[in-house]
Write a structure and sequence with these properties.
The structure holds 2 protein chains of 2 kinds. Chain A is built from no helices and 11 strands. By secondary structure, chain A is an all-beta fold. The termini of chain A are far apart. Chain B is mainly β. Chain B is 0% helix and 50% strand. The chains are: A mainly beta, B mainly beta.
């Protein structure tokens, strides 16, 4: 079965360190989303790409977060420098521009 | 901006009984999609059911059905014959028609459902 692959599954880091999370969308999918899940805020959209171009990153803190798609098979989300308030589960989802989105298993980030 | 509200942070139900999870949303759009997603402890986001706003008929998937009230902007999920495996966080979500720059899923805060044996 085709699926969205996210790595790493878990990440523990210290405050101030750079964190990179990776997402491999389903082959052929042209839309990619990054969501952040916390207990307080629930699921928030961070960024949205179509055909590798960022269409909406208004939910992303610009000073420390960056999202890119270096090619169609890889999406990255970087945090530099990381802070304890960034601790959350980060989800990637991909789709073909229809209502149906496929979610990865998420990266659980803990910043100490 | 669209908002999705789930007013029940937690609910519990006895196995084999029926439970209804509530969701309301706010939008000025006429055409859109509504979803219920399930997130078990494994963290995986699983689509439970989908409703297109232009369809008056309520969607049904086996033991899961919705009560879609467009004028009231209400979208509740009914789970019949609850099973232990239904224990999970349930998210209500809204999506504008795909294609535009505002194409995204907006989620409610979730309802934690526990099915008791």
């Amino acid at each position: 079965d085709a699926r969205v692959t996210q790595t790493p599954r878990h990440k523990v880091t210290e405050m101030g360190q750079e964190v990179t999370m990776r997402c491999q969308p389903i082959l052929g999918h042209n839309t990619v989303f990054w969501y952040r899940q916390t207990m307080m805020q629930g699921l928030e959209l961070l960024a949205y790409f179509r055909n590798r171009a960022p269409l909406d990153d208004s939910g992303m803190p610009k000073d420390r977060f960056s999202a890119e798609m270096p090619d169609a098979t890889l999406a990255t989300l970087k945090i530099q420098p990381s802070e304890p308030r960034d601790s959350a589960v980060y989800f990637c989802a991909s789709g073909l521009g229809t209502w149906k989105l496929f979610f990865g298993s998420g990266t659980q980030l803990s910043v100490l | 901006a669209q908002t999705v509200t789930q007013s029940q942070p937690e609910m519990s139900v006895q196995e084999a009984e029926t439970v209804t999870l509530s969701c309301t949303y706010d939008t000025s759009e006429n055409n859109y999609y509504l979803f219920w997603y399930k997130q078990p402890p494994s963290r995986q986001m699983i689509l439970v059911i989908r409703q297109e706003a232009y369809k008056q008929q309520n969607a049904t998937e086996n033991r899961f059905s919705v009560n879609f009230q467009k004028a009231a902007k209400s979208f509740s999920l009914k789970i019949s014959d609850s099973q232990l495996g239904d224990t999970a966080m349930y998210f209500c979500a809204f999506m504008r028609p795909p294609g535009g720059s505002n194409y995204k899923l907006t989620f409610g805060k979730g309802t934690l459902l526990t099915v008791n044996p």
